[in-house]
UniProtKB/TrEMBL annotation:
InterPro entries: NTF2-like_dom_sf (IPR032710), SnoaL-like (IPR037401). It comes from Streptomyces corchorusii (Streptomyces chibaensis). This is SnoaL-like domain-containing protein. It comes from the Bacteria. Residues 17-112 form the SnoaL-like domain.
Length: 121
């Protein structure tokens, strides 16, 4: 994947961070004032979960990466100040989660992210 032309956003770093064992490396890819909106079965489009800033994002990542699950970055496309990627996850019991993200980049960091996720029930 590598670094996108004209952008400091490094998709190889994103892959290593997503597929790692801790959220710390992934957290380093976010701007200090980043915002994440999460849409799923429990947090529908009119009422998404919204996280503001790296401290709230860190709490989410600490929770996610403390679980018995693996993460894989399937695809990533970077165009200018935007990126989109697909992440597939699997819990130890075989339950699968699929998350699609659309991000806005600022100075090579994630400034805004929309995550749409679905999981096995």
């Amino acid at each position: 994947m590598g670094t996108a032309a004209g952008s400091a956003f490094d998709t190889d770093t994103l892959r290593r961070a997503v597929e790692g064992n801790t959220g710390n490396n992934l957290l380093s890819l976010y701007a200090d004032d980043a915002e994440i909106r999460i849409v799923d079965r429990n947090n529908q489009p009119s009422h998404p979960t919204v996280l503001h800033g790296r401290s709230q994002i860190a709490e989410l990542l600490d929770d996610v990466y403390s679980r018995d699950m693996t993460h894989r970055l399937d695809r990533c496309v970077v165009q200018g100040d935007h990126a989109a990627y697909c992440e597939s996850c699997e819990y130890g019991d075989g339950t699968r989660v699929l998350a699609e993200s659309m991000v806005t980049l600022r100075d090579g960091k994630i400034a805004d992210q929309l995550i749409i996720q679905a999981w096995d029930e």
